[in-house]
User: What shape does this take?
Amino acid sequence: MRRREFIGLLSLALIGCPQLTSAQTSPRARRITMLMPYGDGAISDAMRSAFAQALRDLRWIEGQNVRIEYRLGGGDFGRLRSLAKEAVQAKPEVIVALNTPLVAAVLDETRSIPVVFGLVSDPVGSGFVQSYARPGGNATGFAYGGSALASKWLQLLKEISPAISRVAVLLCRACRRSILSSTLRSRCAIICGRTNCRARSQSRGYRAGYRGAGSSARKRSHCDS
Assistant: This one.
């Protein structure tokens, strides 16, 4: 993701808010809510700092013409929906959501507040936008990876370890019906030389997902995703 393009999209969303006049003629600061899946720590601190600096580069100064509220998920998938609901109830001008489960949760709560997303793998397949060229609706942003790159991930695994017979893929619930998910499952089956690839949900957080995937890889002879 290119930072300036991401912030540029956010600026357009702010400028396009019909209920507000321009920052130069109105004393009211624009309000942004930024949702992150992380807890307090180095990652969230770095994200806050980079976000605020990029806005300053475009003359959106926190405390002057823009107010930013940060809400953290603490790495707990169970908190993301309540986080999204609280953000929508606060009625900011723009919501920034930084992963697929958060975007899904926010769009379940609102189809009117502009949503700018990042760190999303398959926004079309997940139903967030209609297409890359014409997103439609109230969401836009940047995607990384996608189904084409996912195939390359698995191809690289096979090249690194030709004898590989088990692959565990961690996906959130919001990704399970996406193009990315179906691509990963089919490629897992091909690489592992099997005809079936079982899908498993993980809603208890990242660490529980890692433990579950490790256990599956040790105990099962099929691919889990």
